[in-house]
Amino acid sequence: MSPAGPASPARLAVLLALLGVLVALTALGALFLGSARVPPRDVLAVLTGHVKGVDQVVVLGLRLPRILAALLAGGALAVAGAGFQALTRNPLAEPSVLGVSSGAAFGVIVAQVSGLGSGLVEAVGLAACAFAGALVAGIGVYLIAARAGGMPVHTLLLAGVIVGLFFSSAIAVLISVVDFDRLGGVVHWLLGNLGPITPGSLAVFAALAALGCWLVIAQARALNLLALGEESAQQLGVDAEGLKRRIFAGAALLTAAVVAFVGPIGFVGLIVPQSLRMVLGADNRVVIPSALLAGGAFLLVADTLARNLIAPAELSVGVLTALCGAPFFIYLLRARAPHVGP
Amino acid sequence: MTPVVECQGVTFAYPPQGAYPERGGSEVAFTLRELSFRVERGEVFGVIGPNGSGKTTLVRLLSRVLLPSRGQILIEGTTTRDLSRAAVARRVAVVPQDVPSAFPHTVEELVLMGRFPRAPERFFETAADRTAAERAMASVGIRALRGARLDRLSGGERQRAMLARALAQEPELLLLDEPTAHLDLRYQAECAGLLRRLGREAGLTIVLVSHDLGFAAELSDRLLLVAGGLALRVGVPEVVLEEALIESAYGCRVVVEKHPMSRRPVVHLVYPKG
What we know:
Chain A is an all-alpha fold. In chain A, 75% of the residues lie in helices and 0% in strands. Chain A has a single domain, classed as ABC transporter involved in vitamin B12 uptake, BtuC. Chain A has helices spanning 9-32, 40-47, 54-88, 100-113, 120-147, 153-177, 180-183, 186-190, 199-217, 220-226, 230-235, 240-261, 268-280, 284-308, 317-335, 337-340. Chain B has a domain at 99-170.
C-alpha cells in the first residue's frame, strides 16, 4: 500500500522538509557530543563566534567537518543503494553487497601504494582510482551474472560476493607486499572511518556526490518504469540502455567518492532505502531524494554512537553499520523471500 | 484513409548467436520473412500461429523495440525508423502477458506510468495526466484497487491494471500479447467482454496476438496466420481457420466447427491415440 497516494511535488516537498529538520537536529546534536569534554555553553559560544582556542578547534575544526562528511557519505551511499536496487531490480543490491565498494577500495589502495599525497589534486586522483575500481568491479559482476542466464536475484548477489572477495584478497596481497609504514592508517580506513578530513577534500567529495546524485535522481521517473522489465520500459519510450549506463555510472561514482574519502562503509545503501520503501511506497521519485537526507542522518547518528559508545576509544562506523546491516539483510531475504526468489 | 498499421515486406532476422562467420557459419535464421498486411482503423486484428512462428517478434517490431531488417512498418503513415520510442508509445500501447513477479508499485502508480511517453522529460505527472489515468482505471473498473500493490492482486485484476496502463497512453493502437495466457475461463470471458467494449466505445484499433485460436476467432474481424516466419493467410476467421491450413501450420490433426452461439469457427484438436 502506498499510504499517501502517488508522488506529487507537494508530497515530496513536505517529506524533504521533515527530513531536513531531522538532519539539522542530528547535526546539532552531534556538535555537542564527543570524547573531548566541551560544555554545551562553550559549544554555543563557539557557534556564535565568542570563543577561540581549543574549544573552537574541537567544535569547528574536528566535529563540524566530520559531521559534514558523515552527512555526505550517508546520503551518497543511500542514493547509490537505491540506484543499484532499481537498476538490477533486486531489493538486496547495494554497493558493498555487489562488490563495488571492494573494487573502489582496491583502486584507492593502488593509488596509495603508488605514493599519492594528500593535496587537492591527489584527492581528485584518489577518487578517480576509486571510480575506476568501482567500474571494473561492477562490470565484472554484471558479466558474471549475465553469463549465468538473465539476472536472477541470487545469481547477481553471488557474483557480487565473489567479486568482493576477489578484490578484498587483492587488497590483502598489496598490504602484505608493501612496507607497512607507507600505508599509514590503511587498515583503520578499510573498516570504514570518518576521520579528519581537509576542507579541500570535503569540497571535492561534495562535488562528486552532487554529480552522482544528479545522475541518479534526475532519472527517477524512468527508473520506476524499469521495474516493468526492459522491454516494457522501451515500449513506453524509455531509452533503457542509456538509462542503465547513467544509473550505473552515478551509483558507482557515489560509491567511489565515499570509499575514497571515508572508506568502505557497508549496508547503508540497503538499510536506508529499504526502510524508506516500507513506509513511503516504491516510487523512486520519493524514495531516492528522501534517501539522500535520511542516509545522511542515519550515518551521522551511527558515527556519533561510534565516537561515544566506548569513549575515549572509538569504534569504526563501518563496523557499526555492518552490525545493523547484516541482520537487516537476513530479514529482507527471509521476510520477502517469496518476492525475491528466482 | 491511412491504415493504423501497415507492414510492407517486413523481414527480420536476429543477429546469429555464437556463430563464427570465418568458420562458414554465416546462415542467418529469418524470424519473419516478407510480411505484408494492413490494419484498418477500428479493426480487431488477430495474429495467430504456432510457438516460434514469429508472433513475439512481430509485437517487438510493431512497438519499435526492434526495427525491420528489410521492408518497413508504417504507423499512421510514418515508418517506425523515423519515430522515436516515445513517439511510437504515444500511438501504440502494448499490454504484456504479465508484470514481473516482484513488481513493487501500486495500481495507480502503474497506470500513471502510461503517461510517461506524453512528456518523458517531466519529473512529475500533471493534473491532466491524473485525469487520464482516472478515466483509464474507471473504464476497466479498477478504481477501488488503486492503492493495492500489483503482486497482491489476482491474475485477472493484474491484467485489467495492465490494460488501464495501456489506455492511459491514449493510443491509436492497442497491442495485446497473449492476453489469455495466465487467465482461467471466467477471466477470459471478462477480458473478451472488456476488449469488445473498448473496441466499440473507444473506437480503438486492436492487434491481438494469441495462441488461443478460439479466443482470437471470437474477437477478431480478421486473422493473420503466421508459421515459420511466413504469412500463410490473412482474412476473416472463416477463411483462415480452415482445417487443411491449420493442420499444415501446426502439424497436427484438427476439426473445425461453428460455435453453437456465436457461429464463429472453433478449432478442435484431434488427440492422437497413444
